Each structure stands twice: as C-alpha cells, then as structure tokens.
Amino acid sequence: MAERSTAAVDVADNSGDEPLAADAVKATADGADIQDGRAADGPMPEKDGERIGAAPAAAPELHSGHKLARRYRLEECVTRVDGFSSWRAMDEKLRRAVGVHLLPADHPRARSVLAAARSSALLGDPRFVQVLDAVEENDLVYVVHEWLPDATELTALLAAGPLEAHEAYQLVSQISQAMAAAHREGLAHLRLTPSAILRTSSGQYRIRGLAVNAALRGITSETPQRADTEAVGALLYAALTQRWPYENDAYGLTGLPKGVGLIAPDQVRAGVHRGLGELAMRALANDGATASRQEPAFTTPEELAKTVAAMPRIRPPEPAFTAPPEYQHTTYQQGSYGRPAPAGMPTTQPVTVVPPPPLQSRTGKVLKWGVAALLIAALGLGSWQLADTLLGRTNQGSSSDTGQTPQPGGDDNPKPPEAGKPLKPAHASVIAIGGEDQVKPEDAPRAIDGSAGSGWVTPQYFGHSNFGNLPGRKDGSGIIVDLGSEQNVTGIDLKLSAAGQKLQVLAAPAGASGPDLLSEFSQRLTKADTAKKDFSATLDQPVRTRYVLVHIIDLPSDGEGGYRGGINEIQIRGQGS
C-alpha cells in the first residue's frame, strides 16, 4: 500500500455562496468559496441536499500570529462566517503553508466536522486536497489542510473563456474518477462548485473540501451520489459553454435564460464537442432534462467515469506553427552592401568602364597569334596528362595483388556515434500505465528543472517491488518528457534517486500528438535493464521524436522494509530540429 503524500496543496475555504466583504472578519449570511482571498460570485442550487440551520455559536476571536499546538501560526483570515473561520497559516515545524478551519468546540457542527475531516484523511487519494490534522484543543476544533500556491481555481479558468475540448475531457475524466473512488469509501462532497476545483501547474485537477465543507455548512443529502454526479455535470457544462446550467448567475458565470429550462450545450455555444455535451446533459438529467440521444441519465460518479473512459480519446490541439518572416532579398550597391548611406555622405555613382580599343597594328596581330598558339599548346598538354593519369589508375586497379575492391565510405576506424548537445525540454508529466491514477503528477516538473537535488520520487510501497502491485500500476510508471517539437535524439542522461531501478527509455514515433499510453511509445531507445544512480546511453543512430518516456518497471528496496524509486534529473541529448 502506498503511503499518503503530504506535499503542499492549496486549500482555502469554499464552503458557501455569497461574496466576501472587503473586511475578512465581517460575517455574512452564508459561507464563501475562496481562492487566494477572492470570493465566489453566486450560489449553487442544493437540489438534493438539506442545509442545517446556522449555528448561534460565534467564530473564535483569533488574530494573525496566534499559534495552534505551538506549530501552526495563523497569518491571514480568508473568511469568517456561520460560526467558523478559515485561515492561511504556516506550519513552522515543516516550514510550509497550510490552510486551517477553526470553530468553537461547543459549535453544534464541531463533532461532525471532526468526523468528516478524519474520514477524508483516511482516504489518502492524491486527487483530493489532503487533511493533515484534525484536533480538539483548548475549547477549539481545527482542521489543517494542505495548501498549493501555484494552483488555479476553475472559476478563474472559466473567467478567461470556455475550455477547449481536450481540457474539458481531462476535467470530467479526472473529477469523475476521483469522486467514484471517494464514494466507494463512503465519502461524498455535496459542494462540488467551480471554486472547489483546482488545476495545478502540471495540468492535474484537484478537489478540495471533500466531506469537510458540507460538514462546516451543515449540508446533508439522502442521495449523495446523485447530488455529486449532477455537480460534475454542471462543472462540465460550464467548462464547455462558460454558462452556469441554472437560471441564477453564479461563480462569475451567466445563468441560462429564465423559463427556458436546460438547453443542450451545442445550442448555447457553437463548436461544442458533441460527445462531451451529451455527457453533461446525461449527468444533469437528474434535474429533469433529457439527453439528446435518449440514453439513461447518470446516477453515480462511477457510471459517468466508465462512460468517459469508454468514449474515443480526445487529443490535445496541435501547437500553433508560426511561419518564419519572409526572406528579404538585398541588392548589392558598390560600397554600401544595401545599407543606406549615412547622412551627409555623397552617394556613390556607378562607374562606366570603357574597354580598350582592339589591337589593329602589325605588333598587335603578332601578339594575338602568339597567345592563340600558347593556349592550344596548353590545352594539348593538359589533355595528355589527364589521359595518362586515368590510364595509370585503371592499370593499377586491374593489376592489384589483393583482389579487393575499395568500398565507398570504408574506414578502418569507423566514426563513433554522435553524443549530441543537451536539448531543452518544454514539459514533463507522469504516465498512467494502466490508464488510471498517476504517481505524484505534481512532482514531474522537478525531473527537468536542471537541479539534481530534487526530483520525482515515488511513495513507499510494501510487499511488491512493481509499485505495490496496485491495479493500474503493476506495469510501472515513469516520466514523459515533451521536447516542444520534433528533434533528432542521440542520447539520454539520468540522475536517479536510488540505484537498482529497472528501467527502459522509449520514444513516441514522429508525428505523435500527446501520447499518454505505454503502447504509444513504439521506438525503443534502450533495453530494459537495472540501472545505477547515474545512467547514460548514446544511440547508434539518431531517433526522430518529440516525446521521450523514461519507464520505470521495478523499484529497489529502500532499506526500511519497502520499495521506492524516482528520477532526480532527465537530460536528453540530440542534434536539434
């Protein structure tokens, strides 16, 4: 079983509806969805949920600089509402930012918040913002979350426009799979809004507030799977159309026209991917809408996730090609080479050359005949020498004692393979060998950051060296390096976190676009073998590719009863494009 990651992940409160006032201490009528101190713009209908009345208990009166458990120093209050407050804090023991929810121990929801936080922490799924601590101490109950400063809220992404088809596909695929895994463990979210979804710098979507935000707000549901499925459908609808699929405006998005009902996404915005639009309608069919092709409505995230996985894969868009500027022909001008003459300098005038008059005298005629005779003699001598040389070579070849014919390009010392120069990678991501969850995708960029002191390191696995023999990981994992454009790859250098890892290096064929399956890397650069900490290989012939996969098949023992591996740095050599 893999250990739970405690990497820093952003979490601010997303537990309510109305925008925050300018003063974070001022209470509002309900909670607020916050990302980097910014409130959400409107409510999300609670079709299947029931909201417990606001508790009369006041939020704890704390201030910046207050410490919890002599460890968590409160720095900024992002919201104070409905008897609880949310803070950005600093974990002084591990020197990292965290998020903290605070409420009095006698708050009517304190017990349910503690129970929800501890249940969420046991899930340990990296697709969710992790609960790091849940404590009752000194008449206070506080829940500590991870904090990721480089993540972007879906609300901010949609403010810039609808997502393109591949990005919307990634959103619904990752969110539905994550919620299906949560419901298999008996956990529901009940507050899946655009501000509850974060997109990391590596392109992975993370969900914050699992179970906890509903407990803070006192929201329950008799059909939690149906409620979360409809919420995922609303997120997909908003991603495709930049419109909120209800009549009320919310989260910076305009709602649908009043009295019309739910409209298919391709009727709201032209160019919407038909398959994704039908998925959104089937998920939102819980509210009475009918899917365009009459398929049954989704009632659980598991059904939605399976349908998304079965649909044809949507490829990312090809990178835009910028044509080079047209070549400007220059005209040669004597003395200036096409450059304008400095101010005040006279312009060079073309010089007319008058040929000398022909030789007409007796002496001139003698000279002409003499020059002609010399030219004839020179041509005859040159022709004779050329013929003699060719005949000599022919005779030498026919009378050779060895009887061997020289081969073109032959050399007793063949030229060694070219090592190439380092190529600058554009992006790195973690491959999901089984098409399921990835191994620490947020750490993939560390494998190409130019520093061997940090990198992508796997969790600790027990019982099996092939990634714990977990479903979807028993064939290993690895890092995909995107070179940005097709290059002629001649070699690769690796700095591994530990010796003894069994790995191979593969490449996608020329013309491949966004490969993320092992079968899509058909060019083998190195054979599968156990490597030392420093691994280097130079190819006999350059390989044309854009995507290179370092595939780790087996992990070495970490000396603590488990198995762990990773890659600190990847350097790909080549001849450029």
TrEMBL record:
Residues 72-332 form the Protein kinase domain. Signal peptide: none annotated. Residues 1-50, 317-349, 394-423 are annotated as: Disordered. The keyword Transmembrane helix does not apply. One of its GO terms (molecular function) is ATP binding. PROSITE patterns: PROTEIN_KINASE_DOM (PS50011). Residues 21-32 have a biased composition (Low complexity). Residues 394-407 have a biased composition (Polar residues). Keywords: Kinase, Serine/threonine-protein kinase, Transferase. Residues 35-50 have a biased composition (Basic and acidic residues). SUPFAM superfamilies: Protein kinase-like (PK-like). InterPro entries: Kinase-like_dom_sf, Prot_kinase_dom. The keyword Secreted does not apply. It comes from the Bacteria. This is Serine/threonine protein kinase.
